[in-house]
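This part of the workshop introduces the protein records we will be handling. A record pairs a protein's sequence with a compact description of its fold. Comparing a sequence with its tokens is the quickest way to learn the format. The record below serves as our worked example for the rest of this section:
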Amino acid sequence: MYYEIIGGSFPAVNVVLNEGETVVTQSGAMAWADEDIEMSTNAEGGLLKSLGRMFSGASLMFVRHTAQRDGSRITFSASFPGTIREFKVDADHEYFAQKSAFLVAEEGVNIDASVNKRFWAGLLGGEGFILQKFTGEGSMLAEIDGSVVELELEAGESIKVETGHVALFESSVTYDVESVSGFKNVFFGGQGLFLTTLTGPGKVWLQTLTAQDMAQKLVPYMPSSSGVTVSSSSSSSSN
């Protein structure tokens, strides 16, 4: 699989396949493709695994794109402004990722759901109680919101992160969710009820932007339903 990342802050990736080569994506990830790319949709790993992936933010079904000739091209676009990064998956390099990080992978990569041991804490935290896990062997491309910050944690070294800013981390990193202590911290700190704790050894990739934060920033600028109603009634009366 050869690929080229395009688009700057609104990235997409052009993938070039030889005859018989296959890549796997989630439903709806493709932007455009040559006519000789054959598409097939199925539930990888059976119904239970598919349902687990759906809860982790992945689609219920996966789509396989297979080239019918050398040099076939297919393009996948990120769903949010940010960055596309390649991760090499093998027995020594397995990864956990936030929901919706997965973009496209070679068919040797396995994508499963992983439930954090503190299920209810993660559930109440709103993010991160179910992650995507990548094993097997091959290249995987992930989309990361905003810019990427890569950290190397030493054994026993920990970092606390607002959960939405965790993009990916190596499987050697220990992941946990902990509650924010203190009344004023909870209600006035603006960080939510829970934080993610990542403990080394291993690499961590953080993202500087989250869809949740952007959505909250845009709320004051969105027209209210009452405003639309008033505009509509005034227009009707003028007629």
Notes: The chain has one domain: 2-220. The chain has a mean pLDDT of 80.
